[in-house]
Design brief:
There is one protein chain. This protein is of the alpha+beta class. The strands form 2 sheets. Strands 2-1-6 form a 3-stranded mixed β-sheet, covered by helices on one side. Strands 4-3-5 form a 3-stranded antiparallel β-sheet, with no helix packed on it. Strand 1, helix 2 and strand 2 form a beta-alpha-beta unit. The longest helix is centred in the N-terminal third of the chain and has 20 residues. It is elongated and about 50 Å long.
């Protein structure tokens, strides 16, 4: 389950920022999860609930925002929405797509005290 390692990385990032930005508590963590990131949101939420125990984020809420998958089509030269990497271009049916977005997980916002 790579969601646990992703959440641990997020919590490590929060810990590092707490030292430089001088905060002691996290109230909310907002993550952007790309449609093409191969992350199971339910597993991510579960892992956050487990991994945050004993951390600065022990009482924090997790907000997950879905980021649409985007790709550039070599055939029609359009940027299009795709839900799966193996999708054909919805505009022209071409297969020469290069992913341009929605393939990552990002920390969007951390609400702290």
């Amino acid at each position: 389950m790579h969601e646990l390692s992703l959440i641990r990385s997020v919590l490590n990032l929060i810990l590092e920022r707490s030292v430089t930005d001088h905060f002691e508590r996290v109230n909310r963590v907002c993550l952007g999860v790309g449609e093409l990131s191969n992350v199971e949101v339910e597993a991510l939420v579960f892992c956050f609930g487990v991994a945050k125990r004993g951390s600065l984020a022990h009482d924090a809420a997790l907000v997950v925002k879905s980021i649409p998958g985007k790709a550039w089509c070599q055939t029609c030269q359009n940027i299009v929405h795709i839900a799966v990497r193996s999708d054909a271009c919805p505009s022209c049916g071409g297969w020469g797509l290069s992913v341009t977005g929605g393939d990552r997980i990002n920390v969007i916002e951390i609400e702290v005290e």
